From TrEMBL:
Protein's organism: Rhodopseudomonas palustris (strain BisB18)
InterPro entries: HATPase_C_sf, HD-CE, Hsp90_N
A Pfam entry, by short name: HD-CE
UniProt protein name: ATP-binding region, ATPase-like
Coiled coil: none
Length: 887
């Protein structure tokens, strides 16, 4: 597409146009010539961007030429550049996008593939496709779709920083071996190459960084007139504003649009820019106008244009304020007309057949949302949640440092470096500071003031983490516990007074970033940078979080836990015990101190590497002060690690031999909670996954490749044990929740005693029929009996059964009579009673039928008589039941 020659732009002419009696004419022409030489070489480079990124809008030489015109419109006729500024600005125009060409890298795509950023992006691409832990082959040889996606992502994200390197980069002429640079004038390259590279790269920097980096103007070198200073801040502002405002037909010419046929999001960018005229100045605003109206089918394109104009407006307003603050030459244009207002924008960027109304969700009270979703409405009324979340944040910071700091790696003397210190410091009676300190990676100013406060966005999955710690996102062994970006805000469940102090582990030791909340999330926090933080417990601490705990909040903690005999624990003892459970599976040491007491070591990492006797001892200690019974002697003998160091540890547990009592610490990334409610299939400590932001354990984290060998080992141990038939029946039921074949420990209780699988089939063939009572409500080792219009629960030894009868338990689940006959069974599955029974009968070619019989007199009563329940010796017992009949 033909574009207006850059030499006709006001800015070019202000710097290079010939003038009468010009004593500096030779220098002016030399710089204009140097620019043209650079333009020729840079043009060859940027014209290759299309090869690597075929769906991108135009980023070739015409884009750089157009920026002269857009910048002139923004700056206005009175802003003049000297020739050195004209050369530096033009060079920045040429190079700011050049990093998106594969030719910008000495070995092209292979250089990208060797980078840490490539590994991180590949891992991220697999995660977006549901593969949380890609294999080595998936990482090393991703499919072509991922290669294209990652190439686009890396070139786009790295192009600004790569532009900085291109200024001094050398290419080798293949025939002669002669090195070649983009800037051929040695003085310009030496004196202004770094400045050009930084200005080119700065268009992707946050705006405040411009002011910090570009200070006073750069002097003219000895080869040029002294008054030709180069104002880097002004030129960087011109580049970022012109680039943001260059969203018009020159970026998406019609014929090129037809040839390239971009898809997806790229197509939308092409579509809207293809309709927009180059922007023009109107008073202090930049006006965008469309060639034709956007139809109903093009609403997404119009809104993308709306968003792009908002970005342009933000850059214009920000740079205008920055230049005014630094007393630099101002732009005439200070805003984009219609930005943020669909009604006004639609007057120039026209629509037809519809009306743009901004219906994006709005949050009128973000502080209220944070209070509710970051507090009780998410976590419930659990006063321990803030402590748990702060520990979790410290754990993630320490684990991250183990990977990014070579001096913090595990050694033979210290296998798990890192320490969390948690303390309660009494302010006055009933009022405390809760303090959590760690020696993890620490936080920069940007992390403290932005990422920490970004509600709903996990720092570890953000681009900020990838920028700060390259290689960490693709590290398969780094699995942060924090996933939802909400946990920190739980501290406001406790307190409105919160102080966060942090420093980067590799940064200055006397530079603490301090964020202080005095009114919770309802007020603005105060930020400061301090040389020293008072009362830090150790010199290696990098992050400290302090919460002022009121007497009321402290009382809630005290009321939370009790002995099984209802004697209230002391607060100190309760907290120490709770921390023991919470940190039981951690690979990070935790030390606790209450008021003036001596510090106490809470845990010993890592429990999964301990011997079974040590695990048993720890579990006994942790369960002793709860309502949960300890593991039995038989269960302690069954304790075994789930997984290994090579495969990863997923727990240290045994199959539970109790049907309705849980003795399990469910760990999420090492942060544990005692399981509540009905019995779990396992007892001990195990890693669980979470699917919701409240972090309640959902299901076992271990894959089947880990669970199955562990469960089979449990089967072997159970066969060798001397446990009772009743415990075997429970073990069979529980293991059946984890694996598909538990026949070897199958047990059921019947009217003729306990039976294994072969015994049950033999008795069934001998009797020809087997009865199983149906109960509306199942009860432990009891059957429900209909008698005299009332239901009572009786044990099997109180009945004289006329036929072979099984006792329905958790292992023999029976549907209620009003739900009809039992459901179909799965072939070759032996994990439940019905699957095991029916598959075994089928495999042994025994024909059978299943009947549902209502109100059948299946037994007579032989227990203690009860006039109240009208139970008398010899009385008939009537029950709905299922009959299995074999032929």
């Amino acid at each position: 597409m033909k574009v207006r020659p850059y030499e006709r732009s006001n800015l070019w002419r202000s710097a290079f146009q010939k003038r009468r009696n010009d004593p500096d004419e030779g220098d002016r022409e030399a710089l204009a010539g140097a620019y043209r030489q650079l333009r020729d070489r840079a043009g060859d480079l940027v014209n290759q961007i299309h090869s690597a990124l075929p769906h991108l809008t135009v980023h070739d030489l015409t884009h750089a030429d157009t920026l002269w015109d857009v910048a002139s419109e923004i700056c206005g006729p009175d802003l003049k550049l000297n020739p050195l500024e004209g050369f530096v600005l033009g060079a920045s125009f040429l190079l700011h996008d050049a990093g998106m060409a594969l030719a910008a890298y000495p070995n092209g795509l292979e250089d990208l593939k060797k980078s840490i950023e490539w590994r991180d992006a590949v891992a991220s691409a697999w995660k977006k496709r549901g593969v949380e832990q890609p294999s080595d082959e998936q990482r090393e040889k991703p499919d072509s779709e991922i290669v294209d996606e990652v190439t686009f992502q890396i070139l786009r994200s790295q192009h600004a920083s790569q532009a900085k390197k291109l200024v001094t980069a050398l290419w080798t002429q293949p025939s002669s071996g002669r090195p070649m640079a983009l800037i051929q004038n040695d003085d310009l390259l030496e004196s202004y190459g770094l400045l050009i590279g930084n200005i080119a790269a700065s268009h992707h920097w946050p705006l405040p960084e411009l002011a910090r980096y570009f200070g006073d103007p750069t002097p003219a070198s000895a080869a040029w007139p002294r008054e030709w200073e180069v104002d880097g801040l002004l030129l960087a502002s011109i580049l970022r504003c012109a680039d943001a405002c260059a969203i018009d037909e020159t970026r998406a010419p019609s014929f090129l649009f037809a040839l390239r046929r971009p898809q997806g999001d790229s197509k939308r960018h092409w579509a809207f820019q293809n309709k927009i005229y180059p922007a023009k100045r109107r008073e202090d605003g930049l006006l965008f106008d469309s060639k034709s109206a956007f139809q109903m089918a093009e609403t997404d394109d119009w809104w993308l244009c709306f968003d792009a104009i908002e970005i342009a407006d933000r850059e214009l307003r920000g740079c205008d304020a920055l230049l005014a603050d630094r007393k630099r030459r101002p732009f005439v244009v200070r805003r984009a007309v219609g930005a943020g207002d669909p009604d006004i924008l639609a007057q120039t960027v026209k629509v037809e057949g519809w009306k743009p109304v901004n219906t994006l969700p709005k949050i009128s009270d973000p502080s209220g949302i944070i209070e509710r979703l970051g507090g009780k409405q998410l976590y419930g009324d659990d006063p321990t949640v803030p402590i748990r979340e702060l520990i979790q944040n410290s754990v993630d910071a320490i684990r991250a440092r183990r990977f990014v700091d070579p001096h913090f790696r595990p050694t033979d003397d210290n296998k798990y470096p890192g320490l969390i210190r948690l303390s309660f410091e009494e302010i006055r009676e009933g009022e405390f500071w809760l303090i959590v300190e760690d020696d993890g990676v620490g936080m920069s100013e940007r992390t403290v003031t932005r990422s920490l406060l970004d509600f709903g966005t996990s720092f570890w999955s953000s681009s900020s983490a990838a920028e700060l710690y390259p290689g960490l996102p693709s590290e398969p062994k780094f699995k942060p516990v924090g996933r939802f970006g909400i946990g920190f805000f739980s501290v406001f469940m406790y307190s409105t007074v919160v102080v966060v102090a942090s420093r980067e582990f590799a940064g200055p030791k006397r530079s603490w970033n301090v964020l202080e909340f005095a009114h919770g999330v309802r007020g603005r926090a105060n930020f400061s940078i301090e040389e020293k933080i008072h009362d830090v417990s150790a010199p290696d601490v990098n992050t400290r979080v302090m919460l002022k705990i009121s007497e009321k909040s402290f009382q809630r903690l005290q009321d939370r836990y009790f002995y099984r005999n209802s004697r209230i624990l002391s607060v100190e003892d309760m907290l120490f015990h709770w921390l023991g459970v919470t940190t039981a599976a951690l690979d990070v040491s935790v030390v606790f101190r209450f008021s003036s007491s001596a510090p106490m070591v809470v845990n010993a990492p890592l429990v999964y590497e301990s011997e079974a006797s040590e695990v048993s001892k720890r579990l006994s200690t942790l369960l002793a002060k709860t309502e949960h019974p300890p593991l039995s002697e038989d269960e302690n003998e069954l304790l075994a690690p789930m997984g290994s160091k090579a495969e990863g540890f997923y727990g240290y547990c045994c199959v539970s031999l109790r049907e309705y009592q849980s003795r399990l610490i469910k760990s999420v990334g090492g942060i544990g909670t005692l399981a509540q409610g009905p019995g779990d299939p396992i007892a001990g400590i195990a890693e669980y996954d979470v699917s919701a932001a409240n972090r309640r354990p959902n299901k076992l984290l271990a894959p089947q490749s880990i669970i199955v060998p562990w469960a089979k080992d449990q089967l072997v141990r159970l066969r060798r044990s001397t446990i009772s038939d009743q415990e075997l029946e429970i073990a069979c039921y529980h293991l059946g929740e984890l694996i598909d074949d538990v026949r070897e420990i199958f047990r059921v209780q019947s009217s003729v005693g306990w039976l294994d699988l072969d015994g049950m089939i033999a008795e069934l063939e001998k009797s020809g029929e087997m009865l199983i009572p149906v109960r509306p409500i199942q009860e432990y080792y009891c059957v429900g009996v209909y008698h005299s219009s009332s239901q009572v629960s009786l044990r099997l030894n109180e009945l004289n059964c006329a036929q072979l009868t099984l006792l329905p338990t958790g292992h023999v689940p029976i549907q209620c009579a009003d739900r009809g006959i039992i459901q179909d069974w799965e072939p070759r599955i032996y994990k439940g009673f019905w699957d095991t029974l029916f598959n075994t009968l089928s495999e042994r070619k025994i024909d059978f039928e299943v009947f549902l019989i209502n109100k059948f007199p299946f037994a007579t009563f032989s227990g203690l008589e009860s006039h109240r329940d009208q139970l008398f010796k010899g009385g008939q017992l009537i029950q709905d039941l299922i009959k299995i009949k074999v032929r």
